[in-house]
Structure formats: structure tokens, C-alpha cells
Amino acid sequence: MSDSFAQQYLADVLSTFRAYRKLADRAIEQLSDEEYFMLLDEESNSVAVIMKHIAGNMLSRFTDFLTSDGEKPNRDRDSEFIITAGTTRAELIAFWNRASDCLFNALEPLQPADLERIITIRGQEHGVVQAINRQMTHYASHIGQIVFSQSICGRQSGHR
Fold first, then answer.
1. Mean pLDDT across 38-57
2. Per-residue pLDDT at 106 exceeds 60
3. What span, in angstroms and rounded, lies between the C-alpha atoms of 93 and 21?
4. pLDDT in tens, 84-101
5. Are 125 and 119 within 8 A, CB to CB?
6. Domains detected in the chain
7. Contact 59, 73 (CB under 8 A)
8. Prediction pTM value
């Protein structure tokens, strides 16, 4: 991979992750607290749960991104889908912000040579490009769920 192509890829990755983050934040800002925690139906997750899951995933995948398995032993994925009584929107947004900082702190210093490295996720080897693309598509699908939830809540409340 040429350095020029690698640099373009890295710049595009950062730009794309920032755009998805901005899209999610804009949708979340438009939700009342009630809408933020609301289930659209019994098969869906609330925006709060989706954010908690994305944040848990980001922290696991991007903490020590190049040097440790992307599925950290302390991650409790199942708990990401549970909002306990007393959990506040502010707490979840702080978690979301910390996870986003982790992602950008891992990706911003990457150099073209890093894209040729191999990392592990759940004990399986992945190229760095493959791992980044995997996370980008994962987050994009969940951010789409957030935007969809916001649009449904907006129609139901009649003010968005």
C-alpha cells in the first residue's frame, strides 16, 4: 500500500467516524429524556441502549488498539443491553464521550505503516484496515438505528 493511499485512507476514516458521531449526536440532542430511553417496540433497543453498546464496543476495540486483543476480558457485552434503574442520560453521554475519545486517540496517531499490521479480535487475526472497516460498518448500522428512532419519536410527538 502506498503511503499516499494509506494517508488518504486514514484521513477518510477519521472524517467518516467524525461524521457518524455528529449524525448520532444531532439525533440524540433532539430526543427528550423519555424518548431517549423509550423502546419503539418489544424487539428494539432504546437509543440509550444502542449508545451504551456502541460505547462498550469502542472501548473494547480501541483501547490498546494495536497491541491487545480487541475483545477485552473485562468487557461485559450482555450488560451493554441493560439499562439499570437510576441510569441517567448524562452518565450514558459521558460514557459515549469517553469511548469516542478512545476511538479517536487510537486512530489519530496511526501512520501508513500501521495499516499493514495484524491485530486480534476475539483471538482471530485481522488486518488493521479490516478491523477499522469492520467497526465503521458496525457503528454506521447502529447510528442508523439511532437516527431512525429519533425520526419515529419526532413523528409521534409532532414537533420534529
1. 94
2. yes
3. 12
4. 999 999 999 999 999 999
5. yes
6. 3-157 (1.20.120.450)
7. no
8. 0.92
